Give the backbone structure.
Amino acid sequence: MKAPVIFFVVIALIFVGMDGLYVVNEAEQAIVTQFGKPVGDVIDSGLHLKIPFVQKVTRFEKRILKWDGDPNQIPTKDKRFIWIDTTARWRIKDPLLFYTTVATERGAMSRLDDIIDSVVRDAVSGRLLVELVRGSDYEAQEDSGEERFEVEGVVIAKENLVGREEIMAGILEKARANTPDYGIELLDVQIKRINYVEQVRTRVYERMINERKKVAAQYRSEGEGEKADILGQMERELKEISSEAYRKVLEVRGAADAEAAAIYAEAYNQDKEFYAFLRTLESYKKSIKENGRLVISTDSDYYRYLKQAK
Amino acid sequence: MQDWGSGPSNDDLEKKVIEIRDYFKNKFNPQKGLLPILVIVALIVIGAYTSMYEVDTEETGVVLRFGKFSGFSEPGLHFKLPLGIDRVYLVQTGRVLKEEFGFRTVTPDVRSTFTKRGLEEESLTLTGDLNVSDVEWIVQFQVADPFKFIFRIKDPVGTIRDISEAMVRKTIGNANVTEVLTTERAQLASEIQRDLQDTLNQYDIGVRIVTVKFQDVTPPDPVKAAYNEVNESEQQRESLIFQAREQFNREVPRARGEAKKVLQEAEGYAVERVNKARGETNRFLALLTEYRKAPSVTRSRIYLETLEEVLPRLEEVYVMDDKTGGLLPLLPLRKSMEGGAK
């Protein structure tokens, strides 16, 4: 009769004792509530005691958690539609406040959706696309020419542009302002992806293609130009060579002719009459062909010589 | 069987012997005696089994006792307190882990196969000059502190992925498309690695980034053809220049050679001309010397010799007299000769 009673008492005590003990893991933090009313501090990892059945333990993540926003289609200040995908790290800083305001991680996520999405939307629509994409120390390519930023006819000076870092810092600051109300600490907000929406992307591709085509055309015409230049040089060189050769040839020939003339003159001057005589006969020999007819004037040299001969 | 001996005390043993005897006597009620023994044996086996664990070579064990961190365990066989008092989490600390972006390895092999399907959103990246480039990259990392890795952050790998993407976009967004595609890949990658490590250090999650490397960095597909065209045109430019140079090199030396040839010819002409002049004049002078010795005889001789040579060729000779103005047929030489011949 006695043994079963003891057995049940022991079981009951163990059961009660077990409920008085609880383990909080390194990844967790916990709060203890007594009939719904929070008791004591936030419980860290380890083995802890509580009043069985009366007190209840609620556990929360102690680790850094991730928030991932829905990719959003937002127009920038310069009216370009972009997809923006943000992500954030946060953690439960004040479990009690967290418990009372948003209760669960899921609740916190939807609150973060509201906060971060709206802050990001404000930041994006208040900025130019280049500001979102570039850092403050961006350097344009040397040959790209001067950029102009204009929003609805108003030119924005380059000095007034901010970089991505500043925008991100602004977003984080604004988003952070609200999260402590929910016992949440927001560690950072990052733009994971930023891209053109589909139809803008096609236009950008077209622009890129045209730009490339321009470069290609430039290369080609550079090639043509260079070729023409080289051929021109060649032409000049050829002309130079041939004309110089021509000049030299004429000079050489001229000099030779002059020398020859001098030689002839010097020799023939010794007896002009005899030279004329010889030369006349010479040309006579040369000029009279087979079966020709000869007509000579009575006062020509030929005739004279003929007469003399007679 | 040995567990039996070391387990229960002598009294228990006696009791059990009696029970076993009872069991054999009363075969209709077998469970009554054997069940507790089986339970005890099962408990011991489970206890022993759950208090042993193995840590692989590339792993580190993180041990929690009652949920609180109590130490790391090195590779090998270890004991822990059973029944969930000690809990061990194994983390691959030795291994360098890899995350891929913009592509996935489908089957890693000597020749791995990759897929890009549906990953455009991950790889298309805006550059600072507002162009789009298709960037694939990998991040290799190692767990530096296994405790932080699993207890400082939920989903550490997801976080590494997110921050990698954010940093790549930040860095690429700060560069121009040509730099991204060609010249500054390595520098950009190391910038990304630094930023990524810095950001993860802020979270203090015990991760060491081993390397960030770009894989294929290309223009987006629709633009690729245009990029190739640029490469082609660059080649064309080079080949046009090359052709022109070739033509230059072919024609100019030839022209020089030809010029030299013409000049040589001219010089030849000059020599010839002068020599001829000398020859002719020398001949004349020689003749003149003789002529002077006997002018009229020589003159007549030369004249007659010439006539001798010339006249036989002629058919007719006419003499034109200025005073009469008529033609005087002088010698119809050939006709009379021909007539005579007939």
